[in-house]
Amino acid sequence: MRYLRSFLTLIGLFLLTTGYGQDDVNKADMADTMRSNGRIYVVVAVVVLILIGLILYLVRLDRKISKMEREKP
Amino acid sequence: MHKSWWKILCVVLLIYTFIAGFLMDVPRLPALSETIRNLYFHVCMWFCMMILFTGSVIYAIRYLRSNKLRDDIYSRQFAVVGIVFGVLGYATGAIWMSYTWADPNNSSFQSFNAVAREPKLIGAAIALLIYFAYMILRDSIPDMDKRARISAVYNIFAYALLFPTIWIIPRLLPSLHPGGENGNPALDFKDIDNRMRMVFYPAVIGWTLLGVWITSLKIRLNLLKEKRLLQ
Questions:
Q1: For an interface test with B, which of A3, A58, A60, A70 has the most B Cβ atoms less than 10 Å from its Cβ?
Q2: Which residues of A touch B230 (CB under 8 A)?
């Protein structure tokens, strides 16, 4: 039941995204403004922080499992 | 944490992927524009899935040769994490597609008509459904040895079906997805831009190592759980 609900939420999210982002396709509009004023670094900082947080969580799990392996002969 | 050098390599490569993936120059292409950076994330999910499913089938064959339940646990956990990466690849593809393939002159409902006919999408969906069925089949058999044997055999069939569904049929049919007639676009040395290759290959290795890391944790946890059954 729990999985079903999160699955339905995911499907709903995809349906939401399908309507957007239909810009002019003829020219490549890159995010040059974002690069020139340096705001892109804010995005990179946020994304890398999330990645590091997830990896620290994995490391903690790894340590815990190692401890359990040592405890049980 | 044992054998940690490749875990450190994984972390370093992933952080490099996220930083260089956002900051390095990419080719300026119409329609794709900045979304071309999804190559470092979306495509890597499929590479990782393929490698994890390969690990799964190797352990399935090992189980059939050795009859050790340990190999069955390895095989199952590789398949589970492979499915997770496959679903992530499918989901990220759905988002990317809706921004680049959808026809700007039509409503998204009408372009969905064209997008839903994509042989790559259908093939990938079939491949994932086959692996969902693997999980359902496994968990519906209460007897442990029977479950391990039947699911190992099914795993080999599922892996064999991956090749027509995600490698061969999409190559034979016209498609919006890159990589139609002349092989895999990400692996083709002439097709992928040099600047992107600098990030893409480390990204593939980093994501794959992350998948293997998560799998190894799940395997170790399950080995602890089944300890008394294995001895």
A1: A58
A2: none
pLDDT per position as a tens digit, B172-184: 777 667 655 555 5
How many contacts (CB atoms, under 8 Å) link A and B?
A: 84
Kindly tell me the burial class for residue A41, based on how many C-beta atoms sit within 10 Å of its own C-beta (0-12, 13-18, 19 or more). middle
Spatial contact of B163 and B75, defined as CB atoms under 8 Å apart: no
Please give the structure tokens belonging to residue B130: 């086959």
ipTM > 0.85 for the complex: no
Q: Where are the alpha helices (DSSP H) in B38-118?
A: 42-66, 69-100, 108-115
Cβ atoms of residues A68 and B223 within 8 Å: no
What are B80's two structure tokens? 């589970």
Q: Locate tokens 């071309």: which residue? A: B36
Say what the pTM is.
0.82
Give the CB-side neighbour count of residue B166, counting CA atoms within 13 A: 20
Tokens of A40: 């892109």
Chain B from 11 to 50: CB within 8 A of any A CB: 11, 14-15, 18-19, 22-23, 28-34
Rounded (to 5) percent helix, strand, coil in chain B: 75, 0, 25
pLDDT digits (tens, 9 = 90+) for B93-104: 888 887 777 666
B74 and B219 Cβ atoms separated by less than 8 Å:
yes
